[in-house]
Amino acid sequence: MPADGTIQDTSRGSLRQQVYLQLRSAIEQGTLRAGTRLPPSREHAQALGVARNTVLWALERLRVEGFVQARVGDGTYVADGVAALAVRPGGGRAALVGEAALSARGRLMADTALRWRPPAVMAAPFRIGAPEVASFPFALWDRLSRSVAPAARQGTAQYLDPQGLPALREAIAHWLLVSRGLRCSAEQVLVTSGSQQAIDLIGRLLLDVGDEVMVEDPGYSGIRACLLGHGAQVRPVPLDDEGLDIAAGAARWPGARLVVVTPTHQFPLGLRMSLARRVALIDWARRCGGWIVEDDYDGEFQYGPHRIAALASLPHAERVLYVGTFSKTLHPGLRLGFIVLPAGLAPAFAAAKALADRHCPGELQAVLARFIAEGHLLRHLRRMRELYPQRQALLIEALARASGGALRLAPREQGMHLTAEVSGRRGDVALSARAREVGVMLAPLSAYTLESPRRGWVFGYAAYHDAALRDAARRVGPLFARGSA
What ranges make up the beta strands (E) of 314-386? Predict the structure, then answer.
């Protein structure tokens, strides 16, 4: 409103709407107190520079809503009952938005944001976790979507089974047998909104506040943040060349009820858990009545001649919950993942899923089921399994060249990122900050540790074309050159 009190800006809605909002705000703020007589409508309209009917419309709406009272032959007054709406000093809605307004559980969840802030910007080198999106067959996906029969489309537009469409669960179960050696039924598969919801459901259904959970150190901070948000006690277990040492973990944390591992391609170190450790892990769960969560976030991307099957495919793995995601195999925008559960847990997890978000979008599930069943997922992954090793090799060469040979990453036969470790207790945060200054996203390894002294940097390469990788390498390479870091 201009300084003279007139209303002129129509971009904020109709004039009568603005008059109404102005009067209501004055009443709510206490500027117009209960019992205050409002100016006659004709005078009010002249003061605002609007038609009298505009003011009359606003007053009538306020009367209907109970903010004002019209007294025949006497005028319009602010209603007595609005005194409680007046905003007190230091009060109002803004004052409620803060930690004091949260429950104890809410504060616990809000505090986890200090430990994990997922990126909300477009992926750029060398951000980790991002798959190649430009090569995704969007046209094929659209064609599959358009070819859904009207009756089927109407069916998926209804409220659905929270466990997921049977066709998609069947397709996932068949795919896992062929690709990951995991034998399961469709009744054991729960479709989720990505792997993060899968971890959230596991935390809600299998853990009580104060329960201990063993995690890899270093490990994925998103998992730790979720577990902490449920009140769990996160207990770090160090890694060696064979992966997580469950014997050492169980000795230190004998009360732990659950362990979360990334055995196929450990995040972020890139280790592969040995068979002996896998067997020991399963034995621990059977002996102690514990649970194993296998996060197979990028297990589909194995590039050597022999592919390692999932931990959950081993004998006696009935206490393993296998978590998979299509955010890496296809793209994060789908927001679809899954859990393979022990059969006895599936009904409870489906009920919890219904409480969280009812079910995943039906049409997306239907198209994905066809995408898998008709072989398109296999063809897409074959292309990515050819592309990602090429980008990995380019990354290694470009960084070695740009750093004058000071930074030589070791190649890996799996995954979407590489990790460069530094010896001793040399810091890694400062160099990551310098990388940001030159426009490169480079995560320090220490960001994923709890107690571990490991330091270094994590380089994501899967999502970025050759020119982008070379440009980012040229920017950060000098930071690693001898004598400059």
Answer: 320-325, 337-340
Annotated domain spans of the chain: 10-85, 106-378, 380-480
- Over the stretch 345-385, which tens digit does the pLDDT of each residue have? 999 999 999 999 999 999 999 999 999 999 999 999 999 99
Q: What strands lie across the sheet with 455-460, from one edge to the other?
A: 417-422, 455-460, 443-444
pTM as predicted? 0.83
Separation CA 213–CA 234 (nearest Å)? 5
Collapsed DSSP state (helix, strand, coil) of residue 244: strand
Mean pLDDT of the chain: 90
Yes or no: is domain 10-85 CATH 3.10.50.40? no
CATH of region 380-480: 3.90.1150.10
d(CA 169, CA 175): 10
Distance CA 234, CA 251 (A): 15
* Phi, psi (degrees; rounded to nearest 5) at 79: -65, 150
Give the pLDDT confidence score for residue 85 in this predicted structure: 67
- The CATH number assigned to the domain with range 106-378 reads 3.40.640.10
pLDDT band at 97 (very low <50, low <70, confident <90, very high): low
